[in-house]
């Protein structure tokens, strides 16, 4: 059943448990068309998507990334920053290809295009009552293994994965930061944001303590700092260089 725009956007949640049921082909076509219509920098469409339906490949992805929803969902979409296609097109037309991906702006352009495409897929799927779960670990867990599994050429790397399937759960909706912590009128505030952030941290902790499944004492600030601490061990710069992104300016 299709949802309203309001329900699609405001009731979205990450689904990690799925029914063993295929997504209707009409719904898959809609998701693909939404991805195709994503706005991109320069209309360069500096992204591609790999749609994985093969169960063996999903199992291998789960082994690498350690996210069980990758093997239980009906589909896993891998959203890629992709400068390979424009390089191939330029050479086919006899145009010298400028190595834009080797700049910081080029790196950002590809990542932003892929991220916008992911959100197009999330909104399209959610509007049809289909569950999704973005998986950032697909980028960081083992870039070399993921690239080899997917056969990625130089100039292409995984930005994020998206598990998609028929929901088997409907978890409580997580509280998000209030509007006055996210949307600032005209300029970034000069006022100290500490109290508002600590208030949100308490709200987030209360949510975890009182949620309907797997209650914990997890707080927001500690959890996010823990993720950042873990992220300090990633070697993404060397991984990107191995993918043909020799970022130098």
Mean pLDDT: 96
Task: Count the beta strands.
Answer: 4
Share of residues in strands: 5-15%
Overall shape: globular
pLDDT < 50 stretches: none
Largest sheet: 4 strands, antiparallel
Q: Order the strands across the largest sheet as they lie in space.
A: 1-2-4-3
What does this molecule look like?
- The protein has about 250 residues and is α+β, with helices and mostly antiparallel strands.
- It has twelve helices and four strands; from the N terminus they run ααβααβααβααβαααα.
- Strands 1-2-4-3 form a four-stranded antiparallel β-sheet, with helices on both faces.
- Helix 2 (about 25-35) runs antiparallel to helix 6 (about 105-125).
- It is globular, with a radius of gyration of 20 Å.
- The mean pLDDT is about 95.
Compact overview of the structure:
This protein has 249 residues and is of the alpha+beta class. The chain is built from twelve helices and four strands; from the N terminus they run H-H-E-H-H-E-H-H-E-H-H-E-H-H-H-H. The chain has helices at 5-10, 25-36, 55-65, 69-72, 84-92, 104-127, 137-140, 143-150, 179-182, 194-210, 220-231, 236-242; strands spanning 47-52, 75-82, 131-135, 156-165.
């Amino acid at each position: 059943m299709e949802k309203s725009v309001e329900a699609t956007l405001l009731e979205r949640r990450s689904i990690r448990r799925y029914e063993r049921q295929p997504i209707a082909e009409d719904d898959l076509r809609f998701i693909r068309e939404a991805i195709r219509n994503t706005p991109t920098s320069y209309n360069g469409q500096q992204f591609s998507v790999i749609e994985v339906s093969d169960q063996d490949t999903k199992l291998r992805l789960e082994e690498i990334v350690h996210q069980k929803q990758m093997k239980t969902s009906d589909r896993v979409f891998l959203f890629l920053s992709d400068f390979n296609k424009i390089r191939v097109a330029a050479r086919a037309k006899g145009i010298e290809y400028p190595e834009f991906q080797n700049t910081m702006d080029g790196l950002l352009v590809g990542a932003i295009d892929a991220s916008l495409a992911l959100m197009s897929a999330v909104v399209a799927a959610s509007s049809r009552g289909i569950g999704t779960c973005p998986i950032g670990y697909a980028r960081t867990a083992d870039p070399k293994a993921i690239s080899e599994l997917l056969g990625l050429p130089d100039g292409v790397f995984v930005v994020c994965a998206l598990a998609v399937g028929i929901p088997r759960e409907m978890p409580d909706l997580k509280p998000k930061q209030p509007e006055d912590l996210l949307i600032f009128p005209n300029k970034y505030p000069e006022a100290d944001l500490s109290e508002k952030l600590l208030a949100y941290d308490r709200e987030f902790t209360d949510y975890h303590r009182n949620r309907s499944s797997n209650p914990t004492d997890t707080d927001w600030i500690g959890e996010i700092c823990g993720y950042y601490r873990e992220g300090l061990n990633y070697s993404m710069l060397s991984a990107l260089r191995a993918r043909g992104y020799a970022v130098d300016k």
